Amino acid sequence: MSVLEAVGVLVAGMAAGTINTVVGSGTLITFPTLLFFGYPPVVANVSNTVGLVAGGVTAVHGYRGELEGSRRTLTRLAPASLVGGVIGAVLLLVLPPEAFQAIVPVLIALGLALVVLGPTLQRRAAARHEAGIPPAAWNGPALTGGVLVAGVYGGYFGAAQGVILMGLLSALSSEPIQRLNGFKNVLGTIVNAVAAATFMLVAWERIDWLVALLIGVGAFVGGLLGARVGRRLPPLALRTVIILVGLVGITKIIWFS
């Protein structure tokens, strides 16, 4: 690896860590960067997943204030992310790259639709709560199932996993959006961590450790920066950023397909 390549990967990791904290979809920066430098797709994807775990850790730390009092919710959702991440990582290793190319843009588009509809759905949920009407019986299972599917997708590829998670959380939870962003950071980090652990156990030879290290260092710093930026964005601005990044993600995935 040349010095120019090393600097490029490091900067891409920092940008990805920042974007992952605010929105998700940092892989849309690091993955194409690694492809541009000539790394095989699977090596790029696996090494990228391992490196981005560091950014997730700093993102969660940065949102620790918003996460206070959320132990019950995260305890219910975290196992779905864990299982989904393992399944997605295994699928990456056993299925051809073309397997998810058709469904990935659809999942991102669905996530964006949920982000757009989120305020309306949250207002209705709040009104039901004020009227003493309990949440629909399917609400909890639907959210858990959606988090599981997002985990499978995140373990497989990861780009725009945050957009999908924010869409689900916005549609099925009445919590403020910054708190939901904290949930997204925790769940996304769990997926990345278990997928990375799976790769280390069964596909360590496909990991380029220098690439993973450079992305990790950059993402670690980016996660700290992203927490500062993301926590200051008003709800409308945050939703706008999520939608724009999601649309770019759909375009890039279709382009690389």
Structural descriptors:
single chain, 257 residues, mainly alpha, 10 helices
Could you explain how this protein is built, in words?
The protein has one domain. Helix content is 79%, strand content 0%. It is built from 10 helices and no strands. It starts with a helix and ends with a helix.
Summarize the structure.
The protein has 257 residues and is mostly helical. Helix content is 79%, strand content 0%.
SSE order and pairing:
Layout: H1 3-22, H2 27-36, H3 41-62, H4 71-94, H5 103-130, H6 139-156, H7 161-172, H8 177-202, H9 209-230, H10 235-256
Helix pairs in contact: 1-2, 1-3, 1-9, 2-3, 3-8, 3-9, 4-6, 4-8, 5-7, 5-10, 6-7, 6-8, 7-8
| Helix count, DSSP H or I runs of 4 or more residues | 10
Helical fraction equals over 70%
* Quaternary structure type: single chain
Note the run of SSEs as H and E.
HHHHHHHHHH
How many domains? The number is 1
Distance between the termini: 27 Å
Low-confidence stretches: none
Please give the radius of gyration in angstroms. Answer: 17 Å
Form type? globular
Strand content: under 5%
Q: Which structural class should the secondary elements be placed in?
A: mainly alpha
Mean model confidence by pLDDT: 82
Give me the count of strands: 0
Biggest sheet character? none
